[in-house]
Design a protein that fits this description.
Blueprint (H helix, E strand, L loop, with lengths): L7 E6 L4 H10 L5 E7 L8 H4 L17 H7 L2 E4 L5 H11 L4 E4 L9 H8 L12 E2 L2 H4 L8 E3 L3 H10 L13 E6 L14 H4 L4 E3 L6 H13 L7 E6 L6 E7 L8 H8 L6 E3 L15 E8 L4 E8 L3 H15 L17
Parallel strand pairs: 1-2, 1-3, 3-4, 4-6, 5-6, 7-9, 11-12
Antiparallel strand pairs: 7-10, 8-9, 10-13, 12-13
Helix pairs in contact: 1-11, 3-4, 7-9
């Protein structure tokens, strides 16, 4: 049951996927949300709990509605799009025609500003005129700058983890800094549809690399580093691995700063002072401590007299890397308490 002072009407399009399910879980506990419509082309008519079993505990038994992009935009104050890549750009005009206060896309469709870069990375774009129209939803960095935004795109899960590690170092990055990130993720990052690489006998007790020739999130990293560093921006290499876990990303970033950094952990602490979901630790973080939460834990160390910096970061790929960051961005855009609906701590052991 919504709190008596809740007013927001929220639509989630693509609500049957993992990110959509996390959005439903978070939004049903959000103090400002009065009503939720969940749209799904694959599960229309089914109860939410038939797809997302944890939602069986809701006092009502809501059902998924068919996808009607224009109706969703016309009814809702806030529309979250939790669709596979390519679908948001095809329905964005219909959603926007309804004139909702805020649209938040969790897919990659509008993350990149440069059309040529976007099409090199993902192929032809159906709405190139909208690239650059969306605010970057890296909520822990953008913070109050998201206030009043009416279109937000949430960074990818790998990009979120790496950018959180690199942003405090942006003032000391140069063309030769050459960031390299070794990152491992859980099987939920591959989506709700089963694939050979997410089949339990293959994934359990296994660890393997993929996309070593270039991961698509590198385009986001390079574009954001360009925005932060201008002409001195380095390019970041992302070395991705699949780990025998369901949730989470553990990323370790190595950087050669343009000038020595003797105490990088202090640099992180100062940069994220007052940010509610960032915790800078005095020891390397453990992934289990953030699973199920919107928190990111970081730790930095220097080597070679500060000429090399290592930053380790852990996040939940479905929460901080997607749905949680989207809700946090909504809170910031609508001038709500930034932590509303996101107060849960991690689930360790998990």
């Amino acid at each position: 049951m919504a709190p008596p002072d809740a007013t927001l009407k929220v639509a989630v399009v693509g609500a049957a996927g993992y990110v959509g399910g996390e959005l439903l879980r978070l939004l049903t506990g959000h103090p400002a949300v009065a009503e939720i419509h969940a749209h799904s082309s694959s599960s229309a008519g089914r109860r939410w709990s038939e797809v997302h079993s944890s939602l069986v505990n809701l006092p009502a038994a809501p059902r998924f509605e068919p996808v009607d992009a224009e109706a969703a935009g016309a009814w809702a104050d806030v529309v979250f799009l939790a669709l596979p890549h390519g679908e948001s750009q095809r329905i964005m005009a219909a959603v926007a025609a309804g004139d909702p206060r805020l649209i938040i896309d969790t897919a990659a469709d509008f993350r990149l500003v440069d059309c040529a870069r976007a099409e090199r990375t993902y192929g032809p774009h159906a709405a190139p005129e909208l690239l650059g129209r969306f605010a970057c939803g890296l909520a822990d960095v953008e913070g109050a700058r998201l206030a009043g935004a009416d279109r937000i795109t949430v960074p990818g899960c790998f990009a979120t983890s790496v950018l959180l590690a690199l942003w405090p170092l942006a003032p000391v990055l140069g063309p030769a800094s050459a960031p390299v990130c070794w990152a491992a993720t859980g099987s939920s990052g591959s989506g709700a549809r089963a694939k050979a690489t997410t089949h339990h006998p293959f994934r359990a007790h296994n660890l393997f690399a993929y996309a070593l020739a270039g991961h698509r999130h590198e385009a986001e990293l390079d574009e954001r580093l360009g925005a932060w560093c201008g002409s001195r921006a380095p390019s970041c290499s992302l070395l991705t691995h699949s780990a025998p876990i369901v949730r989470g990303i553990h990323a370790t970033v190595r950087v050669a700063p343009a000038e020595p950094v003797v105490d990088p952990n202090r640099l992180l602490s100062d940069s994220y002072a007052g940010r509610p979901f960032i915790r800078v630790l005095d020891h390397p973080p453990e992934l289990a401590s953030v699973v199920g939460s919107n928190h990111a834990h970081l730790h930095a160390a220097s080597r070679r007299d500060g000429r090399e910096v290592i930053v380790a970061v852990v996040i939940d790929n479905l929460v901080k890397g997607a749905a949680g960051q989207a809700v946090q961005a909504m809170n910031l855009a609508l001038d709500l308490d930034e932590t509303a609906g996101l107060e849960a701590v991690g689930l360790a052991p998990c």
